[in-house]
């Protein structure tokens, strides 16, 4: 298994889950780590985006020392030692950009209300190194040269393809969700498009649907979505549209 394949698997695991344990350096207990649970998403490049309040302890810690970690794992599984997990180590910095906010709110619409409470800001954790454990004996360090994906034009503006799917291909998303997740959503919504897959679901819930291989261009994404649709039709024994 190549390092590119290992990084791809770790990315897909990371995109499947929507919260992780943020590790910061404690200011109230110097020398000790402080852990807190935060929602996050990964940018197309592979950096983590979090949305945190200025009054939160972890934010005060970040302002004093920007070196952090984010650990992602499946809390629903019984045997945590046998299941995959990812730890991203990097530096946190402010990231109050319109595209960051737009993607975050697509995945976490409930966060719209946070703007009316305490001062919340977006931070990006720029990955320096990643630890990936895919199960017993599958332990890897991933340097950022393999973790980072080269920026493409469509990364910063996926709204066009998301709108197109939501307006013209609801039926395809219904089939994909039935095939991959086993749920039947009457009016599914595409929430994201990333090089490793997409988030799709409803206003109340979303699931990550992985692609078979990394998509470098918007054309690659379109081909991956077509394949997912055709695979779903075959699996569900539904004739292809003429």
UniProtKB/TrEMBL annotation:
Ranges of residues in domain CREG-like beta-barrel: 3-147
Under the heading Pfam families, the entry gives: CREG_beta-barrel, DUF2470
Its cellular-component GO annotations read: cytoplasm
User: Which residue stretches, if any, does this entry annotate as coiled coil?
Assistant: none
| InterPro entries in UniProt | CREG_beta-barrel, DUF2470, Haem_oxidase_HugZ-like_sf, Split_barrel_FMN-bd
Q: Where, by residue number, does the polypeptide cross the bilayer?
A: none
Official protein name in the record:
Uncharacterized protein
Protein's organism: Alteromonas naphthalenivorans
């Amino acid at each position: 298994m190549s390092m590119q394949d290992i990084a791809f698997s770790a990315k897909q695991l990371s995109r499947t889950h929507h919260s992780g344990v943020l590790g910061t350096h404690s200011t109230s207990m110097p020398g000790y780590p402080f852990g807190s649970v935060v929602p996050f998403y990964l940018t197309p490049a592979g950096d983590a985006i979090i949305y945190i309040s200025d009054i939160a302890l972890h934010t005060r810690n970040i302002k004093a020392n920007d070196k952090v970690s984010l650990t992602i794992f499946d809390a629903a599984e019984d045997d945590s030692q046998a299941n995959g997990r990812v730890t991203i180590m990097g530096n946190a910095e402010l990231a109050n950009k319109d595209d960051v906010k737009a993607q975050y709110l697509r995945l976490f619409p409930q966060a719209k209300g946070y703007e009316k409470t305490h001062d919340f800001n977006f931070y990006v954790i720029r990955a320096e190194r990643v630890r990936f454990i895919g199960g017993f004996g599958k332990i890897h360090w991933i340097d950022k040269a393999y973790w980072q994906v080269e920026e493409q034009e469509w990364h910063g503006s996926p709204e066009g393809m998301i709108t197109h799917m939501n307006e013209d291909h609801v039926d395809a998303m219904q089939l994909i969700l039935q095939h991959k997740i086993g749920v039947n959503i009457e009016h599914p919504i595409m929430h994201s498009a990333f090089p490793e897959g997409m988030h799709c679901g409803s206003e109340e819930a979303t699931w990550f649907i992985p692609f078979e291989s990394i998509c470098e261009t918007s054309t690659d994404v379109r081909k991956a979505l077509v394949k997912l649709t055709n695979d779903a039709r075959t699996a569900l024994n539904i004739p292809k549209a003429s």
